[in-house]
Amino acid sequence: MLDVPDLEEFCALAERDPVVNVFALHRARMTRLEPRWLGGEMWGRFEAGRLVSACHVGANLVPVQATEDDARAFAERALAGTRTATTIVGPHEAVRTFWNGVAASWGRPRETRWMQPHLEISGPPQVAPDPQVRRTERADLDEVYPACVAMYTEEVGVSPETGGSADLYRARVTQLIARGWSFARFDAGRLVFKAEVACASSGAAQVQGVWVPPDRRGEGLAAAGMAAVVAAVQETIAPVVSLYVNEWNHPARRTYERVGFVETARFSTVMF
Hints:
39% of the residues lie in helices and 29% in strands. It is of the alpha+beta class. The longest helix is centred in the middle third of the chain and has 16 residues, at 141-156. The protein is built from nine helices and eleven strands. InterPro entries: Acyl_CoA_acyltransferase, DUF4081, GNAT_dom, UCP21603_acetyltransf. It holds the Pfam family Acetyltransf_1. Residues 131-272 form the N-acetyltransferase domain.
């Protein structure tokens, strides 16, 4: 298990692909790999005393620079304990190999999404940003929070409030607003587009939660809204903006392509 003295070496490893590894970099720098703040563990695999791969193990299990051999080794390590992860997510080959190693013991997942395009944009957006998109404020919470619940439920298939988790999820939404990581457009006080930055490092920021109410889809709100988010994030948070999208979500993929995102990898997600 990696700890505070391993932080520099871990960050050097993750920086080999700082956009794909932005979640792990964000978590490492926020917590300095202290287990009490990490809310889990960061496993490392060494060869000749050198860190060659890692795996974030908490509610999200995320391989970092893991080859198939590394992923198999992490799966063997995982089988020695109890599953804590509700989601396995990361580059496709590493996730697939890890899952094949633990599937017989971890039980049937609620859903698997195997070939999710991972998209990036490092230049200016290719459509005009919506000037009405802005960072949200605490006073917007009564509009932002229900939209976040609706988006999550539509995307994941269960409500984030399930099992008495409403207070925790509301706190997360409030935290993103406070950080300046929540963006939205309002028409006559009603939220009609939203997106959040999920995690960020000095080199990249990952966007999540892109959503337009069903009755306002098809108006171009998502493309112009995402262009505004990209421009704001690049100006104030990180030079590269990334996200990953379900392979079957062709309308979203077309929107991101219009904005200027390009595919750089494939992710996979296993959800429990």
